[in-house]
Amino acid sequence: METRVASISIIVENPDSIEQLNALLHAYGEYIIGRMGIPYREKKINIISIAIDAPQDTIAALSGKIGSLPGISAKTVYSNVIG
User: Fold this and answer.
1) What are the Cα distances from residue 50, in Å, to 42, 65, 66?
2) What is the DSSP string of 57-80?
3) For 3, 54, 56, 61, which has the most beta carbons within 10 A of its beta carbon?
4) pLDDT tens column, 15-52
5) What is the phi/psi pair of residue 30, to 5°?
6) Is the pTM of this model over 0.85?
């Protein structure tokens, strides 16, 4: 199956949703290349970047599930690398 490399950028404004977010990321862990989280304490938000290599529908499903969590926004950028 063809996979794509993508980056999912996540902004967490509701700390109550972090447990659900972590559960989703754990469920898709086999596809995640790396993860970087930055707490922005002054604004009381967290910024998370996920690098992922997965089928396009899998990436879209994960991004959609993340974006549907209360107080969390997600945007995905796809590379042109298809494997």
Assistant:
1) 23, 14, 12
2) HHHHHHHHHHHTSTTEEEEEEEEE
3) 54
4) 999 999 999 999 999 999 999 999 999 999 999 999 99
5) -65, -20
6) yes
